[in-house]
Amino acid sequence: MRLLSATFENWGPYYGTQSINFDCERTAPIVLVYGENMRGKTSLLRGLRFALFGSVEGQDGKMLDPAVMANYDARDESDSFEFGVTLMLEHQSEEIEISRRFAASVDNGRVVLGSIRNKMRIVGKNPIPEQDIQEMVSRIIHPDIAEFFLFDGEMLERFEKRLRSDETSAKYLRERIEMVLGVPALRYLKTDIEALIEDTSAAVRKESSQEKTSRDRIKSLEAVEDAQRGLAKDRDQVTQELEETRKVLKSLETQMQEVEAIKEIFFDRKSKEEQIAELDRDRLGIEAEMRAFLQTNWWIPVADRLSLEATKAEEAMVSAGLALDRQQRLAYEAEQIRDQIGKPICEVCGQSVPEEEFGKLKERLSAIEDERKDETIIDISLLQTRFKSLSRFINISPVIEQFDSFDEEIRRKIFRASSLKSEVESLTQSIEGNTVDVSALEKNLQNARGLEDQFERALTGLEEKQAEAVSKRSVLIRSISDLAPSGGMAKAKLQVLEQVEDAVGNAIDRFRDSMRLRVEDEASAIFKRLTSEKDYAGLRIDGSYYLKIYDEQKRPIDMRSAGADQIVTMSLIGALARSAVEEGPIVMDTPFGRLDRTHRSNILKWVAAMNSQVILFVQSGEFERERDVHLLDNRVGREYVLRREGATKTRIEAMSHD
Amino acid sequence: MSTEMPQGKTEALNALTEALESVPIEKRISATTTRKIVDVAWRHQFTRLGPDRAAARRDLLDDLQTEFLRAKEAGKE
Predict the structure, then answer these.
(1) Which backbone phi and psi does B69 adopt, to 5 degrees?
(2) pLDDT tens digits, residue range A636-658?
(3) d(Cα A477, Cα A498) in Å, to the nearest integer?
(4) Of B45, B47, B61, which to mutate for an interface test with A (greatest number of A Cβ within 10 Å)?
(5) How near does any CA of chain B get to the CA of A190, in Å?
(6) How many CB atoms lie under 10 A from the CB of residue A490?
(7) In this predicted structure, what is the pLDDT of residue A375?
């Protein structure tokens, strides 16, 4: 199958009618669609799936209400509008058109879907009746295997995890892989031959019923067949119940995965809330310490003023001391001068003091008396007492620093708590509206797993009984057939059918094993091409299609990065695409998410070497045209850009090649 | 589109051919019939079990007709 074009009408961000032409020369089968995040790449992928299968899938594989794909502007413009996708494809040299559209009305801004209109026609022939469309599409590309052809980058990340898990989704995935490889073909063939043997054995009975021995054996055979019918009925019922249970399980597991994500948010939020509580506790402790500190250092609020006053008191005391000292020195000098003036004869040498000297002394005394005239009484003790009471505020920096460090610590705690609170708020918003009852969900999951286990065991038991009955019946039919006259048609038919049944039974496991080996070889070759780790020798596949990396010494590499997982998955998908029952286009939406440049360029070179039609939806973070397009080796047939025209509007614009 | 036989179908044919090797050659269905049987299986592989398989069974009977006649003739001898 090859995609020729897709037309989107009011689909997602694609307002009006917009098309992409995928039809390229065989030598250049790659179509590149460039679009930044939120431009509508995923809407394109959903559109292709919708056109094929009539349903809209979310990225987690869950079904979405198709109303979410109605274009906002079309909805706001009119009370009724249409939206949908038309796909043109080529299959077995015929051009086929599939169109699925909804007539929608708008009620209070909400899109109300009318019935879906499905159309399918082979160009040049009559339209296909609507009830046959699904069957026809399934023959072109079966919905169960479509995920290996139309996939997004997120699926690459989930894929490995799904295969490794023991959950129902892993079993479902493994069944799908076998379907891609064609394993059910021989299983169904065996069932068909068994049914034909049953029909034929009735005719053989007629041919041989003349013999008495035959009649006895026919009676035994009828009893075995009765039992077989009963077993088949039971098996159908159990199979149906098992399928139903698996569907329920798959949905519960998906819900559980969502719950796991919510749980992670809960844990994250709880840990942040605990951090906030711890910060609050620490802050309260520091505040208590600070209060005690303030009780001792009550003056801190007026510390500056007190420090100033203390300095002033010290200065006043010092300057008063100096002034007092001078007063005392002047008083003493004056007293000495007066004493000398009263004695005209020197007491030491006994000579008379010259008049000139007296004049100088009188002059000095007069100057001292002048200076002392304005003297005030200095009470130094008062100043000393004041200074003493203020002296502790002279050097207060260590206390203030301690106080500031308390203050700073409190501020830091408040800031951190406030930023954590806003994180908690945004986490709360992200899980708002989730009212999942986790314990009920876990209980349902447990019950469903129990049921699955029960049905599986019942099925195994029934299958064993059926196998016994088949072999018993086979022996009886052979013996009846031996008694039938030679040359009868029924006897001949039975012989041939039994031979084919045996052979097909033996071929099933042989075929499954050979396909598994083929996938391993293909995947290994692709992996060696894609990986940048030269020590990796290849991949080995197990019965569950889980691929392990091996090194040159044949040792399995158990620890591998998310990027390596993605490369392994890409290799498996590439191998499945090459070994698939039907050739199909590979459509990849944002496939290079976690990959580094080397792996990206290896993948692009590999894509260029593929024979299939490849359609890549890429964003600038993973693919830069100028830098990367040469890696596709001139194999790009068409290129499109998703241009933003508004928050809800994107235009598909063709680049060169058109 | 490739006109070659899909790889899986070739493998299925090989598996069935190998499985038939244990049948004595004079009784064994022919290579052409084996191929036809695999064609039917491949064509109807997405048709689920149930009434829809009637077409597959009719095709099988048609393709095995030559073998039935051969076995009938062999029975007369």
Answers:
(1) -65, -40
(2) 999 999 999 988 899 999 996 54
(3) 10
(4) B45
(5) 9
(6) 21
(7) 82
